[in-house]
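In response to reviewer comment 3 from the previous cycle, which asked for concrete evidence that the modeling workflow produces usable outputs, we include below a single protein chain processed end to end. The sequence was submitted unchanged, and the resulting structure tokens are shown without manual editing.
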Amino acid sequence: MASIEVGRVCVKTAGREAGEKCVIIELIDENFVEVIGGSVKNRRCNINHLEPLEETIEVSDDVEAIKKI
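The workflow returned the following structure tokens.
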């Protein structure tokens, strides 16, 4: 199973954005991370509501570039 880390691509499993891909951009604490994606708003998310995938990307300060990937 993939681990929760910065740059990990995940699929949201709960909430209004369920089924959408996102990228972890910051680890807040042991239960929450900050995510962003093409159709996912930049917001805090519970790690229990994420399904990590095997792929990772390089995270930079350019939010628009992350959304395109």
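Residues 63-68 form the longest helix (6 residues). We consider this sufficient to address the reviewer's concern, and the full set will be provided in the supplementary archive.
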